[in-house]
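input
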Amino acid sequence: MQKLRGVGEKVFGLSKEFIGVVINNDRWQAEGDAQQDRASERLRALRKETEAQAKEAKAEVLDRKERAAQRAKG
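output
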């Protein structure tokens, strides 16, 4: 859901910037550009968070395998 929101915000920012260019409005151009930058940062943060969660899940699986192997030995 957050990824969709980030992409939507990026599209909205691009639209705002485009309209600013068409009507020659520097404020809209700057706002649209800034909105796209914020959305990009949010998407990067979400990607890093997802990667971290995947690594945590992998570590948990490896821990469980190790414990199961130790129980089987002993």
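quick obs: The mean pLDDT is 92.
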